[in-house]
């Protein structure tokens, strides 16, 4: 049984004709985009997709899903995305695929956000998964040293060839190995206040619905913490 495929199929049921849809990034969202492409073709849905990465853009385009840029629409009705960790109080860490900046831009302009995750992504508190921090190239070594001095155990995000990973916006990513983030909102403010930080992977008070997949079942949870 492919849990990710089941999650993608379930998420596609949320999409109705006339919607502007945010298309997330990641291995689970891949199956959502696949299901959406089939639904567009079969039901002749009148939708517009707003992508969060070049990878998703290429995938959606190959399935003939109509696309626009974020600046070409007034707002987004619904965004479907994944997450690397989701806490019991429904905050999340995202950015394992390196698309956190565009994901957060799309999420913050969406009327409703839905995350599709496997049950293994549920945690009591955030932090076991490395927290991505997107930074500008200039002065990034100084910023890395500052994060190191604060005890955040930073590592550079690297490619398989050993070069610095580059985001779609041509920035670097520093991953912080924190184990536990006791005060996510406070830590979010600290990071965004550092000169050179473009964005970080803490997605707080964002998600309206979490679709959780495990072997044999799918659970839909209304978080009541997202923006309404």
Topology diagram in text:
Elements: H1 3-12, E1 20-23, H2 27-43, E2 48-51, H3 54-62, E3 78-81, E4 85-87, E5 92-93, H4 100-108, E6 113-118, E7 122-123, E8 131-135, H5 140-149, E9 154-156, E10 172-176, H6 184-192, E11 197-200, E12 202-203, E13 209-214, E14 217-222
Parallel strand pairs: 1-2, 1-3, 3-6, 4-7, 6-13
Antiparallel strand pairs: 4-5, 5-12, 8-10, 8-11, 9-10, 13-14
Helix pairs in contact: 1-2
Q: What would your notes on this structure say?
A:
- The protein starts with a helix and ends in a 6-residue tail after the last strand.
- With 228 residues, it is of the alpha/beta class.
- It has helices at residues 3-12, 27-43, 54-62, 100-108, 140-149, 184-192, and strands at residues 20-23, 48-51, 78-81, 85-87, 92-93, 113-118, 122-123, 131-135, 154-156, 172-176, 197-200, 202-203, 209-214, 217-222.
- The strands form three sheets. The protein has a six-stranded mixed β-sheet, sandwiched between helices. Strands 7-4-5-12 form a four-stranded mixed β-sheet, with no helix packed on it. Strands 9-10-8-11 form a four-stranded antiparallel β-sheet, covered by helices on one side.
- Strand 13 (209-214) and strand 14 (217-222) form a beta hairpin.
- It is built from six helices and 14 strands.
What are the main properties of this structure?
14 strands; 6 helices; 6-stranded mixed beta sheet; 228 residues; 4-stranded mixed beta sheet; globular; alpha/beta
Can you give me a brief rundown of this structure?
The chain has 228 residues and is α/β, with parallel strands linked by helices. It is built from six helices and 14 strands.
